[in-house]
Amino acid sequence: MTHIEPPFELRHVTRGDADYERLARQEAEFWQSAHDGFGVEVLEAGDVDSPIDRYTNGRFTGDERTPWYATISRHGPFRRGLVLGTSGMGQDARILRTNPGLHLTFCDIADESLARWQRALGARFPGRVATMTADLNFVELPANTYDLVVSSSTLHHVINLEHVAGQINGTLTDGGLFFLQDFTGESMFRFADEKKRLFELLHRRDRARRRLPDAGLVWRNEDRSLFSPFCGIRSGDILGAMASVLDAVDVRTCAAIVNLILHARPADWDGTLPRPSVAQRIEQRLRRHLPFLRIRTTPLHFQKEYLRELLFLDELVCDSGLFQPNNAFGMYRKREAGTGAPS
Hints:
The chain is 35% helix and 16% strand. The chain has helices at 18-32, 40-46, 51-61, 89-98, 111-124, 161-171, 193-209, 238-245, 278-287, 304-320, and strands at 80-84, 103-108, 129-133, 146-152, 172-183, 217-219, 247-254, 264-266, 327-333. The chain is globular. The termini are far apart.
């Protein structure tokens, strides 16, 4: 498959645009084939509970044991909901389980993904799951229909963000809520040089502490062949686009520095991983028989002191607003017609 890279300045597309349709086919092919991705399902498959997971939960919900999607039920009850994209079946199942009166409609461009969601979740929650095939760049949602809209790790693949925001606002009922969780870092993963330098300094500090030879980092974010064509296309504009149309109730951020771990590797790394500890090997063996067991000693392959410094630095950077956050969780309400954004 020949990789096609969209122009960095692509900010709006229209139906029938040949260039967009070609890229859209490339996007669909990418997700239908094996790839080294960062999708929610990839992370769910590991079923991990790492220090970074706990840190993220704490930033988003105030409780390191509570993920963002577990807070939805606190604001209910909800009756009719819409989920934009099919990114994490585990979290969608929990939303259904913790909101027993909720019916969810899943909206995605990929019929194959929707069919999988329908089979799996429809069997577990009979009569409470429906699907809708649509391209979010052009989707037209029914007015005043859903009291809950959820989008997780989806909007960073969307170009017409302002259109989607308007559709979400229009489809929410009075009192309805929109829950957003997504990658909101620099568009197309073009991280600020200063942000990368800070991460590199921390990496060099850790190498020196472990008496390892100094080695630079290889940045995988610079290789667009690792991503789908639309991955991160306008990620840096997501929060602004939502705030321009909807009313923000609460928006929390994290990972301005932390998730650069996903995008960098030591230049001298040969691909091998450290041997798991005895506790980790025992838990991995137990999970074969007890699939619901969550790993409490996740092998992150980082020194504890390095992680402690990384998380502390990330919190300072996010709270200071020094760099653009790469991860955000927001709750928004419908903005009534004729009212502008809060000052």
